[in-house]
Amino acid sequence: MEIKNIYSYLNPYINRKQIYKDLRNQSGIYLWTNTITGKKYVGSSINLNIRLKNYFSKNYLEYKIQLDKSLIYRALLKYGYSNFKLEILEFCSIDSILEREQYYLDNLNLEYNLLKTARSLLGFKHSEYSKKLISQALLGRVVKEETKEKLSSNTQAFPVILLDLNNLFVSLYPSIRKVSDLIQINHTYVNKCLNKKGYCFIKYYFIIRNNNMN
């Protein structure tokens, strides 16, 4: 498969200020390539700027590799940013990120990707009912009226999805107030943030509004 990109950065750490400028308020798909070994990693984020700021923090990478087996984090620390190329493959809407990331996972040889399913829910236990809701929410499918009623008894409430910094699903909540109580943040602020940008980044979590369930 021929790889096409929107942006390409050699020695991305040195060029990080330009990267932050180019990717401001953008969601999409990115690709890391080790220029020594040729090994690759594809990922996605609903906020590429924030995601890459984490990549450029060695403290963050060192902390994360204590928690999981991320090959890309280990490789960045081992080889250094100067031996990696960063490409932004495409910008896409939040609703289509899962589908677009899966496209690249299916078509590229990605040695650093341990999981071959986009935004895998492995490691989380859910009921069959909640799995169905998660799938519909993340894929942007229309949810039936009875599902809406189960999610919220308050007609002014709308469901929101909580993601971690890796775009991994954490949970689905029936209202802003519910998720705000969980992460201990003012729900009015979250509401204003979602109305303005469509997502909210707070305390190492992304909160996104699921418009398809309104």
UniProtKB/TrEMBL annotation:
Transferase among keywords: no
GIY-YIG domain: residues covered: 25-114
A single MF term (Gene Ontology): endonuclease activity
Keywords: Endonuclease, Hydrolase, Mitochondrion, Nuclease
InterPro entries, alphabetized: GIY-YIG_endonuc, GIY-YIG_endonuc_sf, Intron_endoG1, Intron_nuc_1_rpt, NUMOD3
UniProt cross-references to SMART domains, sorted A to Z: GIYc, IENR1, IENR2
Domain of life: Eukaryota
Family under the similarity heading: To endonucleases of group I introns of fungi and phage.
Name this protein carries in UniProt: GIY-YIG domain-containing protein
Source species of the chain: Beauveria caledonica
